[in-house]
Design goal:
mainly alpha; 10 helices; 84% helix; 269 residues
Length: 269
């Protein structure tokens, strides 16, 4: 349902943008997706894998893992955001051949930090198997995107930069809403150094292979738009991205299965 609402928002944007405008926006969205995936580096999968076990066997250990993962993801996400903002102009001018992308790329990196924080709290809902809340927050976030787009049209301020502001800020709204639902007692957890080192080692040794897979997958899923922008024109990117949106609905079934099965299977002996 959430992806369906997001699809409607993109259709509305496509109908009101020229191919050139939508091409610029699509490139920035692709960079935001790349940056948020890079900020994760497989940590979320490892987190769900071990937290599902700890919650049943050792809740105190689960709280320590919750806190360590939050610090890891927030630190990496913040570093990626700052670096991305600083490198936005060289990336736009020398790699993607379009100076108009500079501000959009900066917003993309800001949005990636919000997406990193939001995905962390969504992972907690996943671990606890609160799938109804998980689903409703996804619907809420995408509804914000659709309503915001319609408001931009109503006030006649629908431009690439304004839409990108909307897309960048929506994940922060999801993070705030998730923060109201997720128990926060884990923030007070203080494991000793041995426990922290043991949990970090476990998370690292599992996540390193997921990290490798994530790096390959994120390039595979996003490189087409970036290559087209670098070697062709924003208008071509706009037409290509408009068509490719139709294919985005098909991975939903496998994605939903992965989200629900990972915590369940991880907790089995």
């Amino acid at each position: 349902a959430g992806q369906g609402i997001n699809f409607l928002a993109l259709i509305v944007i496509i109908r009101h943008f020229t191919p050139f405008q939508f091409g610029l926006l699509s490139t920035a969205i692709a960079i935001m997706g790349l940056a948020s995936q890079f900020s994760d580096l497989g940590i979320s999968t490892g987190f769900v894998r071990f937290a599902s076990v700890y919650l049943k066997e050792d809740p105190r250990k689960a709280d320590i893992l919750f806190k360590i993962t939050l610090l890891l993801k927030a630190s990496i996400g913040l570093a990626v955001m700052i670096l991305g903002i600083l490198l936005a102009r060289p990336l736009a001018v020398y790699v993607l051949k379009s100076e108009e992308l500079t501000r959009l790329i900066q917003l993309a990196f800001i949005g990636s930090f919000g997406a990193t924080l939001w995905s962390y709290l969504q992972s907690i809902l996943q671990v606890r198997e609160w799938f109804i809340k998980y689903a409703w927050i996804g619907i809420f976030n995408n509804s914000l995107k659709l309503i915001g787009t319609l408001l931009l049209i109503y006030f006649d301020v629908l431009a690439e930069i304004n839409v990108m502001w909307l897309i960048a800020l929506v994940p922060f709204a999801g993070f705030i809403l998730d923060g109201l639902l997720v128990p926060r007692e884990f923030l007070k957890s203080n494991g000793n150094r041995r426990e922290q080192k043991e949990i970090l080692s476990e998370l690292f040794h599992f996540s390193k292979w997921i990290t490798l897979a994530t790096l390959c997958t994120m390039l595979l899923m996003r490189i087409d738009v970036l290559m087209l922008q670098g070697f062709s024109t924003a208008s071509e990117v706009g037409i290509y991205s408009s068509a490719s949106q139709l294919a985005m609905l098909f991975p939903l079934v496998t994605g939903a299965l992965s989200i629900s099965l990972l915590p369940k299977i991880s907790s089995y002996k």
